[in-house]
Amino acid sequence: MGTMLLGVPLVAQGKPVTVTGIRSVTFGAVLPGVPRVVLRTDPANSGQFDIKGPKGNVLLSFVLPLTMTGPAGAQMPLTFGASDAGYSQTQSIGSQVGFDPKQPFTAAMPNNGRASVFVGGTANPATNQRAGAYTATIILNVTVLP
Q: In sequence order, what are the residues at sequence separation of 6 or more whose Cβ sits closer than 8 angstroms to the Cβ of residue 66?
């Protein structure tokens, strides 16, 4: 069982911005030695952040964990691919612009000031992975650009 929790620090530079973690990335039951991929377009298991802020550009940057921690300190490696994050001006999981969560991404906030970011990833359990619940935290930083 693996879940990545969503952390939400804010950088607003004098303009009100709120970021809300809506849904955590959930890997569910993983089998030893079998990678478990969650796509950013997965409506049940992908992570979702909702952003409210002023119209204009924002810089999105993630702090991504390298592992999830489980029972007795066991570690399960995580990887994030070049299109494991997505930005949606309409807050729709079906209408995203994919981007690399390992790189900062400039996004345009729509006129209504509401957008969403979706994220997926891959859990890479070892062949002798200890059974139990594993967690990690993904942080999305949102900076309003001048």
A: 77, 78
Give the count of beta carbons closer than 10 Å to the beta carbon of residue 135. Answer: 15
Q: What is the pTM of this model?
A: 0.89
* Residue (of 82, 94, 93, 87) closest to 108 by Cα position: 87
pLDDT digits (tens, 9 = 90+) for 12-42: 455 678 899 999 999 999 999 999 999 999 9
> What are the structural domains of the chain?
2-144 (2.60.40)
Please identify which residue in the block is written with the tokens 């009100």: 16
DSSP labels, 19-55:
EEEEE-EEEES--TT--EEE-TT-TTTSEEEEEE--S
- Nearest alpha carbon to residue 57 among 27, 96, 13, 23: 13
